[in-house]
Fold these 2 entries.
Entry 1:
Amino acid sequence: MELGSSAASQRRCQDGSLAGRQSLGQGMGQGVAFTVAPVGRFMAVEIGGIDLAQPFDAAVRDALLDALVEHKILVFPGQQLSQEQQLAFTLRFGEAEGHVVRDWRNQRFGAVHTVSNLDPEGKPTTDLRSNGNYFWHTDKSYHDIPSLATILHAIRLPPTGGDTQFADMVRAYEALPEAVQEKIAPLRVVHSWQASRANTFNRPATAEEIAEQPPVVHPLVRTHPVSGRKALYIGKHTSHIEGMDVGEGRALLYQLLDFATRPQFLYAHAWKPGHLVMWDNRSLLHRASGDYDMAQHARLLHRMVVRGTRPY
């Protein structure tokens, strides 16, 4: 199968994003006029003039959700949030999703999940408990109802490196030849926590984890519930394509992943202290970059996930 781009798909991929000022009136909470400035070439904007530790009204929330759909990644600089404040911010957008993964004591993470390279004594290490963050994925696709958005808040950072990379699955899908789009349109993919652990060379999923999160099936091409645009729905949590020879299906998934993570579809976010980044899991893959001295420098972020809707 040849993966390329047609003139028509290239036209669909032209940047139509908007950068400017969103002015919002007073509501029941905090009425805010926030700024929107482009960060990446075709996705990611910086949202200025808003303190996320303070309450805000439904108009602000809806405007932020609109910006999320349009730009896919929202960067909020200069935020100093406690875990409780980050939880309150997250709950403005929906239900907070729990985590299957356990910590080094085999205890479930709380609503706010710490993502770091720290050992149980709090020291930087290269001996990570799990390296799944360094593989392309969309959060919680092994859930029957996966996530809408992930919210990650920078707490401690290395002096350089440790970026988070994002791949735009909408642009990648639209760049596929029409013949490939037609071939993959009806296909459905099995996602599972068990497959995720195997794909990332981590310890096998436990019987308890498998029982908690049995395999689920999602469309290979999902439709965004707000924008209506189609996107590839792939990544490290996938096992195989339903009804297809396992080897053949996995080969197709790897081929699509290689195509969708080409440089023309990528944005790398360079973290700064106080950054809070919110992204649309319905449109993106992401992974962490390990290009820093993990043995010497800490990278610690607080993560929360907003539950979404069943892909279709």
Note: The CA atoms of residues 199 and 236 lie 6 Å apart.
Entry 2:
Amino acid sequence: MEEKPVWGSVCIVLSSILWGTALLYTQYVLDHGIKPKDLVSLKMFFGFLTLFLYLLLTDRNLLKTDHTCLKYSALMGFVCHALYNLFMFSAIDKTTIATTVTLLYTSPIFVMIISRVLFKEYITKAKLLALIFCIVGVYLTVTGGSIQELNFDKIGIIYGLAAGMAYGTMNIISKALVQSYNQLTILTYTLGFAFLFSLSFSDPLVIFQVDFNILVYLFVIMLGVLSTAVSYLFFIKGLFLGLESSKASIISTLEVPISVIGSYLVFNQRVTLWESLGIILVISSVMIMTQSAVRYNRAGKRLFHKNLKL
């Protein structure tokens, strides 16, 4: 398939928007008695159910696959979803949310290094500049520029970095699979395995133990459908369209400023000057990567037309 990195960037941006806006209604669910670790299995279940039913009703052939796809889907479900969430919640428990989010978005560093080794993706000046903007921007957005917001517990930092690496691994494994298997097939089985693995630390039946609230049920389903099934589908589609893993990992950090802006618009939460600067830096990093994709696309077209003339 012809690579379309510009459209790949658009898909990653759309997935980031869905992830970022999900935080707005996630807080409502957590405030009504469901613990974060129990929300994991609920998200995975409704995400899997959505895609499974869609394929069952539209194209059952996409549910057929081979052992290789199942093996890597299980690996991705275990590392990129179950382990990622376990490390993330452990980091929050040992440190703070601000510290965990800041460590989590060190994932572009891991992705850039691994992508250079596995996929021969070049580490360009544009990528390094975008990476610096991205990390500093996330730090300022999350902490408001105050170092006191961070908790430097050693074990917590290890958990946070492990979460970042597990999160970044999704780029690597997905990139290896998307050229050989349908994106819907990969994601369906990945979420299915993720749900099974999450049962080791998460209890989805807890939703029946809290006071009945129709909004809680609605938001939990939305988390499974929109912020899990649809968002990850956009993400994998972006990689399928030829966007480099290292660029995708940087663009996906757009989730952080989107959640902050959403909190300001919906909950009237104050946004400080440092947080505003952080948002600008993250958006700038995304724009650098998008412009890089545009230049790559134009260069590819020029080469194509040159070959035609020859």
Note: Residues 5-309 form one domain.
